[in-house]
User: Which sequence fits this backbone?
């Protein structure tokens, strides 16, 4: 089973109210070193079989058409999940 | 009798109120289900407020792919009047019938207030019975109400007279240029965040000039479209 990761972030010029709220909460918990937070979304798309270039192309199309809204968000990554990285590894 | 469809998606909240507003205006409300593959011969459509599909992904993003939306997008293209209220406005932007998008209110809080609006365009199918510059009071209630679009789109909307409503007195959610509602170029598709269907009957709406709960400023959305359809 293959897995594709799609990361979507609010556009830099769009104020990210959620990120701002998180940034406001961090110092209250003692995390004073973080000057800014932006909050995005991560999608994990699974396919039967390996992640081929065709699968990645379809994921990129889904990312731009459905998973993100280009008015307010950017697709910043469409890639095969790295099976060596713990949380991204297949079960 | 004018027949106005009111769409119900899973998670829609204000379909009953919208249908009631249609009836009070003198038209016949027709319930449209999200899975309907036809519009049952209606003359106009209202996409009401709520939290369709729980606002999953983005507000309005999943509803945009409901079967009934394919029909509405086609009909809107041939001039059928469509009104999107709150979540319905979000659905219209996700469906690319209206430009821009809505993000969380800049102050992060849910807003529920009687909001004064300035009517900026009376040439749309849904605003013909208002006066240019008229101030009306319409309930506003949302979490993702901050209208955003790039500067070029905003200039285009202003230049073409497609800003239909602006927040008067103060901007309650950080919307660009105080925009509360917009239309498409043809003027048959209108979307706004405030809820006209909650200001249609004395005794239940906002406070008005004639006393508490006397305001019925929202009713003319529906009488406007009835007049637009017969002319």
Assistant:
């Amino acid at each position: 089973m293959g897995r594709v990761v799609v990361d979507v972030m609010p556009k830099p010029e769009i104020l990210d109210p959620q990120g701002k709220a998180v940034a406001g909460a961090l110092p209250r918990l003692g995390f004073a070193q973080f000057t800014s937070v932006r909050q995005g979304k991560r999608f994990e798309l699974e396919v039967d079989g390996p992640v081929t270039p065709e699968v990645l192309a379809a994921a990129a199309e889904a990312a731009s058409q459905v998973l993100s809204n280009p008015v307010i968000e950017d697709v910043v990554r469409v890639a095969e999940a790295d099976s060596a990285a713990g949380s991204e590894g297949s079960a | 009798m004018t027949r106005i469809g009111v769409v119900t998606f899973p998670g829609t909240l204000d379909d009953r109120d919208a249908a009631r507003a249609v009836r009070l205006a003198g038209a016949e409300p027709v319930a449209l289900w999200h899975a309907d593959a036809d519009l049952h011969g209606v003359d106009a459509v209202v996409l009401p407020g709520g939290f369709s599909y729980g606002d999953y992904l983005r507000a309005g993003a999943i509803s945009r792919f409901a079967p009934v939306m394919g029909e509405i997008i086609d009909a809107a293209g041939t001039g059928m009047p469509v009104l999107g209220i709150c979540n319905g406005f979000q659905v219209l932007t996700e469906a690319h019938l209206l430009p821009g998008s809505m993000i969380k209110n800049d102050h992060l809080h849910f807003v529920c207030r009687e909001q004064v609006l300035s009517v900026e365009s009376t040439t749309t199918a849904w605003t013909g019975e208002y006066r240019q510059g008229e101030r009306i009071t319409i309930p506003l209630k949302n979490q993702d109400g901050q209208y955003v679009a790039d500067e070029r789109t905003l200039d285009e909307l202003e230049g073409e007279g497609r800003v239909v409503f602006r927040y008067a007195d103060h901007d309650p959610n950080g919307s660009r240029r105080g925009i509360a509602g917009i239309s498409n170029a043809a003027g048959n598709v209108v979307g706004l965040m405030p809820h006209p269907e909650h200001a249609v009957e004395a005794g239940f709406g906002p406070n008005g000039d004639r006393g508490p709960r006397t305001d019925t400023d929202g009713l003319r959305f529906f009488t406007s479209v009835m007049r637009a359809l017969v002319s």
Q: What stands out?
A: Chain B has one domain: 3-230. The interface with chain A takes residues 57-58, 61, 65, 93-94, 99-101, 103-108, 146, 148-150, 174 of chain B (CB under 8 Å). The first strand of chain B starts at residue 3 and ends at 8.
